[in-house]
Amino acid sequence: MAYSDRVIDHYNNPRNVGTLDKSQQEVGTGLVGAPECGDVMRLQIRVNPETQVIEEAKFKTFGCGSAIASSSLATEWIKGRTVDDALAIKNTDIVKELSLPPVKIHCSVLAEDAIRAAIGDWKKKNGVAETPRDAVQTAG
Amino acid sequence: MTLKVIESAVLVPCWSCSVAHNESTLFCPHCSKIQPPASGDYFTVFGLEPRLNIDLTALEREFHRLSRKLHPDRFARATNSEKEWSLADTALLNDAYRTLKDPLRRTEYLLKLHGAEIGEEFSGKDRPKHESGPSRAPADLLEEVFDLNMQLEEMRMARKAGESDPELEKSLLEAKRKFEGLVEDVDRDLRAQWQAWDEGDAAARDAAQKNMVALLDRRRYLSNLLRDVTETLGA
Question: Higher model confidence: residue A63 or residue B63?
């Protein structure tokens, strides 16, 4: 099955690959995985404590092109959004943007999970109450 | 669901003596004539009950006995159909033996006969989206899996640059041993489910089957990872 141009673009030029210092108070880390296909995804955010705006987002994904593209796109989208706005991103938005075929939908689910996990981690660290929207959906 | 294969054996008449027998039997129990290969289950080929705990000695003995009976020399004067069947039956017998003697293959085979969805082709898509428990991500391992992947990437880059990194190699070997241990754990856990599946009531069997499908998922995941480590170390 051929990858869409957008997937190939994100795969060849992934945005925001890297690591943030997870020990820092304003950094949230989400680590999720899909054991069936072997993908593991780590997504990190740095949140401005005053504005709750995600000022920086980094990811590192081991997996197929669609998983890498999904997480790359996710970091691009959440940067500059408030934490609450970022939680509004749905895996179906990613599917649409990247024209993912049905067999690759789980990659977008993983990216959504990663966003939620990172935000959940940041909230926990900073004593911010969880909203029903981000009821922890990390794998496991 | 393909339960019927096992629950009610398909009976077919012998081509030679017309007495009905199970379709997977290689030789007619009545007249001893060779039978054409059937698509029935592997257990019946050996006259075994479809179980996870099987008598491996009996399996091997039966395999040798049937192999001898199927030897081409014995069909030198047989009809062309019988000659063809003896070859096809030999292939079937070998497949059946290879599958049943291996605990893992036997488990996957029997569970698939009972409708379990096992294998890459079911990669996650039919699993409940956020199901917790062993059938979902080995959450207990995510950290380690991620770190291992990082090390593998580093190792590949070092190799590409023609450098050696004994420290990294050592840590990858340690990780490899650890994951091999985890595979052994899975195999032990699988065996622990066998009895419940073989002898339990419908509910117990159902639960055991679910547990085993989850364990097989986990095992496949660990094996894929180990294959990557071995490939990278051996490169």
Answer: B63
pLDDT of residue B218: 86
Question: What does the mean pLDDT of chain A come to?
Answer: 89
Q: Give the residue with greater pLDDT, B3 vs A101.
A: A101
Cα–Cα dist B58/B46, whole Å: 9
Q: Taking a C-beta distance cutoff of 8 angstroms, is the pair A19, A60 a contact? A: yes
Decide if B123 and A109 are in contact by the 8 Å CB cutoff.
Answer: no
| A127 in contact with B, Cβ within 8 Å | no
Q: What pTM value is reported for the model?
A: 0.73
Instruction: Tell me the shortest Cα–Cα distance from B33 to chain A, in angstroms.
Output: 46
Q: Which residues of B touch A (CB under 8 A)?
A: 120, 122-125, 127, 129-130, 132, 136-140, 142-143, 145-146, 149-150, 153, 217-218, 220-221, 224-225
Confidence at A37, pLDDT banded by 50, 70, 90: low
Select, from the ranges B67-71, B113-117, B217-221, the one with the highest average predicted confidence (pLDDT): B67-71
CATH superfamily of B11-101: DnaJ domain (1.10.287.110)
Answer whether B222's CB lies under 8 Å from B210's CB: no
Q: Which helix (H) or strand (E) holds B176?
A: helix B166-199
Q: Which is more confident, B95 or B12?
A: B95
The model's pLDDT over B30-53, given as tens digits with 9 standing for 90+, comes to: 888 999 888 778 998 998 889 999
Give the whole-angstrom CA distance, residue B218 versus residue B197: 19
Would an 8 Å CB–CB cutoff place A40 in contact with chain B? yes
- E strand intervals along B117-161: none
Q: Are residues B86 and B34 in contact, defined by beta-carbon separation less than 8 angstroms?
A: yes
Q: How close B181 gets to chain A, by Cα (Å)? A: 18
Q: Is A17 on the interface with B (CB under 8 A)?
A: no
Which of B42, B29, B170, B156 lies closest to B95, judged by CA? B42
CB-CB contact of B93 with B191 (8 Å)? no
Looking at chain B, how many residues does it have?
Answer: 235
Cα–Cα distance measured from residue B124 to residue B133, given in angstroms and rounded to the nearest whole number: 14
